[in-house]
């Protein structure tokens, strides 16, 4: 999951965050968590496509998949077809 | 000094007609303009319907009496601006102090896209700053020259409210006696750039869009141009003006780069400011031409703001974007013309494909074209990315 | 235009990796530093604690930084949100970001870049930061048009509910940039010059 955290930081240009700052279960989108917004969610969709070849076509799926780093990692391992 | 600002005429080119009369006919015949892409070449051709102006650049160049290699944005601008001028009955443009104020967001992007491809292969060999007619401002200059406007010109780029903001600025040019006549509105051609961009935002509907419908899933892009001719009191006395621009308001939503605040704060502030400026109460508005893009976010924010301002009695409302698609920087200009004509002739435009009531709001859009309304005041909303929210009010002459 | 209601109460110029406030150099960075390095250093110097800054494009960063310096120590917080407006302009619109976005389209088009392919997003970013909800307009013109800016700002101050307006020029194309921003107020504070085209022009060149 640390690789994924580094990818998230790079994709979203989170310059003042390190992988150690992100908890596996920390909510990514709430104010108490990383405070990401709807554009960040779209960038995470790009990340999944770019690094894991996973396509999400319905943005409504976002909140469930992108709840936390753990939920993202679980979604990736369940849906990955080609090794990045 | 002019006390009031009058609308002396208007012109539109859009996906439902090459001029205002043919646009009206499409509303009457209930014929929206979205189809599979015919003129733009894109990998999304089969995926996203768009409301293209139904003519190739050669045909548009003939209509505009301009060279074919000019940006489509300029060709559309010229055609609608000339129609607006001719409809005003003011005659020879050189006898007036005239300003041309045009909103747009893409500039000559249709031409620039081809250049970018070369430039990115070899940046040192490119002359990016010299890309002819890219910059939004040069589109305005080209068209102003062709129209014979020499006194003042300005380009406004505030996303999807650009066209509406052009009318606001134009109105102030007349009120402060800097000019007597202003041709104001907006223009934007459809480009791969905007299509790809809106696709990444996942707000394009793969079917014809359904503004203010509970089942809406996004917008369709369109293209076109729309301009009104605005004049001072002294010139209005010499012609038969359509109506007045009696009020306008602009506010920043201060919430997000692209999304509206959930309760439509900026939308509310813009409409409220427009009412205040025109000295009107909400119940005096007969019809609202909605921003109504068909995205989840816009329609609920706009709907809630209207609810807050107008409840319990609502004006008739509809989104003409259900016919023209979202024409971005042009939309404020195109919808200003539709709204000015609505108050002049008592017209309500239909909101195509409305079937399901939105659960958040207590009112529904009109679905039929109708005439014979006795409107004293009509409102036109235009809300853009960057939180830029505008509302215009047109009042009976 | 009657300018009794409008005063220039402050100015900020950001140019050649230097920051001037009210005509005085207040901070400078390595003149050879790239624009991205300069902007990050300026953010650390004048702000910090606003992680969304790093996601902005250069146009928004520059305008945002100028507003940050301009508004600091001013009385703008005493105004209601609807009483603060913005009137900005530039030459190249959002072309700098348009090119960057276009570069991403071939592989994975970036939504975060696309949202910055409009010049008025900088006004949105400034409004979000400070909670300004007043009127906004963005003009595209060949060069800083002092007549347009002073006439229109005077008219806004005289005929709308605005009590403060941030007025200026925010231009960037690759490594070249130029930012000038003025704080216009309805009372004579700070620099307290009457708002005229001549005064704007003189301050614009005062660096």
Automatic annotation (TrEMBL), chain B:
Residues 1-396 form the Ketosynthase family 3 (KS3) domain. Keywords: Transferase. Coiled coil: none annotated. It comes from the Bacteria. The keyword Transferase applies. Gene3D superfamilies: 3.40.47.10. This is Beta-ketoacyl-[acyl-carrier-protein] synthase family protein.
TrEMBL record, chain C:
This is 3-oxoacyl-ACP synthase. GO terms for molecular function: acyltransferase activity.
């Amino acid at each position: 999951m640390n690789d994924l955290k580094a990818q998230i930081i790079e994709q979203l240009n989170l310059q003042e965050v390190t992988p150690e700052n992100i908890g596996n279960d920390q909510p990514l989108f709430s104010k108490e968590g990383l405070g990401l917004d709807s554009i960040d969610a779209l960038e995470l969709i790009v990340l999944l496509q770019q690094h894991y070849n996973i396509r999400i076509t319905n943005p409504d799926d976002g909140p469930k998949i992108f709840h936390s780093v753990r939920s993202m990692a679980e979604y990736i391992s369940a849906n990955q077809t080609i090794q990045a | 000094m002019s006390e009031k600002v009058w609308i002396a005429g208007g012109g539109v080119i859009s996906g439902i007609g090459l001029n205002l009369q043919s646009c009206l006919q499409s509303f009457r015949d209930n014929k929206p303009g979205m189809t599979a892409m015919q003129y733009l070449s894109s990998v999304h051709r089969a995926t996203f319907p768009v409301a293209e102006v139904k003519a190739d650049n050669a045909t548009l160049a003939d209509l505009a009496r301009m060279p074919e290699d000019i940006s489509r944005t300029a060709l559309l601008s010229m055609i609608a601006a000339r129609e607006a001028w001719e409809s005003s009955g003011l005659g020879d443009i050189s006898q007036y102090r005239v300003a041309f104020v045009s909103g747009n967001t893409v500039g000559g992007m249709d031409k620039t896209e081809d250049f970018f491809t070369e430039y990115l292969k070899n940046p040192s060999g490119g002359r990016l700053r010299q890309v002819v007619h890219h910059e939004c401002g040069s589109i305005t200059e080209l068209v102003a020259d062709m129209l014979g406007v020499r006194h003042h010109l300005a380009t406004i780029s505030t996303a999807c409210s650009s066209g509406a903001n052009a009318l606001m600025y134009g109105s102030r040019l007349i009120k402060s006696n800097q000019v007597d006549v202003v041709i104001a509105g907006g223009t934007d051609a459809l480009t791969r750039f905007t299509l790809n961009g809106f696709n990444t935002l996942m707000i394009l509907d793969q079917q014809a869009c359904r503004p203010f419908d509970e089942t809406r899933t996004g917008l369709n892009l369109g293209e076109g141009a729309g301009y009104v001719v605005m004049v001072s009191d002294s010139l209005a006395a010499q012609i038969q003006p359509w109506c007045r621009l009696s009020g306008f308001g602009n506010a920043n939503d201060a919430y997000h780069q692209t999304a509206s605040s959930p309760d439509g704060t900026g939308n509310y502030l813009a409409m409220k400011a427009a009412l205040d400026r025109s000295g009107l109460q909400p119940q005096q508005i007969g019809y609202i031409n909605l921003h109504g893009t068909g995205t989840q976010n816009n329609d609920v924010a706009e709907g809630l703001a209207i609810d807050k301002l107008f409840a319990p009695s609502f004006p008739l409302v509809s989104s003409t974007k259900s016919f023209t698609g979202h024409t971005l920087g042009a939309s404020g200009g195109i919808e200003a013309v539709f709204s000015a004509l609505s108050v002049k002739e008592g017209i309500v435009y239909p909101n195509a494909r409305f079937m399901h009531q939105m659960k958040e709001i207590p009112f529904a859009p009109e679905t039929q074209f109708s005439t014979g309304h006795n409107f004293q005041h009509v409102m036109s909303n235009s809300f853009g990315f960057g939180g830029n929210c505008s509302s215009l009010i047109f009042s009976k002459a | 235009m009657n300018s009794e209601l409008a005063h220039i109460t402050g100015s900020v110029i950001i140019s050649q990796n230097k920051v001037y406030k009210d005509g005085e150099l207040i901070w400078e960075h390595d003149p050879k530093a790239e624009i991205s390095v300069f902007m990050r250093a300026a953010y650390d110097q004048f702000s910090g604690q606003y992680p969304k800054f790093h996601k902005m494009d250069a146009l928004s960063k520059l305008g945002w930084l100028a507003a940050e310096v301009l508004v600091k120590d001013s009385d703008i917080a005493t105004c209601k949100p609807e009483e603060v407006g913005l009137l900005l302009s530039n030459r190249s619109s959002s072309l700098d970001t348009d090119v960057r976005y276009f570069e991403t389209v071939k592989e994975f088009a970036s939504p975060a870049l696309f949202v910055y392919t409009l010049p008025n997003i900088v006004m949105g970013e400034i409004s979000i930061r400070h909670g300004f909800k007043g009127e906004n307009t963005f003009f595209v013109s060949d060069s800083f048009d002092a007549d347009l800016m002073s006439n229109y700002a005077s008219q806004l101050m005289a005929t709308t509910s605005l009590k403060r307006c941030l007025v200026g020029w925010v231009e960037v194309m690759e490594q070249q940039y130029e930012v000038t921003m003025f704080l216009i107020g309805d009372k004579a504070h700070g620099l307290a010059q009457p708002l005229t085209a001549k005064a704007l022009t003189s301050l614009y060149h005062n660096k």
